[in-house]
Amino acid sequence: MAFETVNDTSILVGEKDQGSKMWASLFASNDVEKSWPLEWIEPEMEGDVTVVPRTILDKGVNLWKDHLVGYFIDKRMSFSLVKRSVEKEWKVKGGLQITTDGKLYYFKFVDPDDRRRILEEGPIFVAGRIMVIRQWSGEVFDKKNQITSVPIWVKCYDIPTQMWSKEGLSLIGSRIEKPKCSDTMTMKMERLDFARICVEIQADTIFPTNLKFKMGDGKTAVIGVEYNWKPQCCSNCNVFGHMTRNCQPKKGTNWVQREAVQPAQSVASGGDQRDAQQRNKTVAETSQEERTSKRKTATKFCSWEGKDNKGCK
């Protein structure tokens, strides 16, 4: 193999040509067409922090606004398992693209009707665990490491017709938690026996089953609320994943200071010193007698059992 010397450094000509081809392949016309050509943007700085222009944020929101997001409240499932489960469960008419960042699962639909239907159907089961489905927003991404709120669908019964409006349903949902939206049939008033409303609950939500509204002229309307699913939540920890009654907070160790053993006070002199020596002698003799008595008792026990008492010492 031939060598070429450049700046007194020997390089294999074959390896040099191969490296040049690999570098050039990064900018092949076909690959560039499949990627985003990037450009230089002068950063605006505030100290060591870069200010993101509003135009970039708006374009990012527009890129992700039609995605749905799925996440598990407790243990996450593998991507392949989630992909198989949603494809089997949803049966979309158009295409479906699924991706994940390790904590959230992102779903992009070709058919808007598929997206609307799946959002209205709410959570699904994946290997026996609930996966929450909600509309993408920047807030979802910001709180992906700590789920403090969960959207759920509720049914509201016996709604007076004069409250069957966007504002009336918003007021009803606000009595439960933060209202998000209603389903299509509720909006079109095609089903009037109950309204289906999506509300975003917190860990300390009370879940009322009856709501009272003063309608005027001395009349009070009572609206019933039904929950198809209540996520496990703990009002002590303010997190989802376990019930308050099953909460087992870590118990701190209570250290109790042990009282120090005070040494016997020394006696100055004279008769007091002789009395202290006599007491110490008496205690020593008593201890010796007790040890002798225990050995004799052990020897008798071995004799009763018919054993050699050599080991009973």
Structural overview:
Among the domains are: 50-142, Alpha-Beta Plaits, CATH 3.30.70.330; 149-245, Alpha-Beta Plaits, CATH 3.30.70. It is extended, with a radius of gyration of 39 Å. By secondary structure, it is an alpha+beta fold. The protein has helices spanning 13-25, 29-33, 54-64, 79-90, 112-121, 138-142, 166-174, 184-187, 270-304; strands spanning 3-6, 9-12, 44-46, 49-51, 68-72, 96-100, 105-109, 124-126, 129-135, 149-157, 178-182, 194-202, 210-216, 219-227, 233-234, 239-240. It is built from 9 helices and 16 strands. Mean pLDDT is 77; it is low at 1-13, 251-255 and 297-313. The chain has a 5-stranded antiparallel sheet with strand order 6-7-5-9-8. Strands 11-12-10-14-13 form a 5-stranded antiparallel sheet. A two-stranded antiparallel sheet has the order 1-2.
Major sheet: size, sense and barrel closure? Answer: 5 strands, antiparallel
Oligomer: single chain
Can you identify the CATH class of one domain?
A: Alpha Beta
Count of distinct strands? 16
CATH architecture of one domain: 2-Layer Sandwich
What's the gist of this structure?
With 313 residues, the protein is an alpha+beta fold. It is 33% helix and 26% strand. The longest helix has 35 residues, at 270-304.
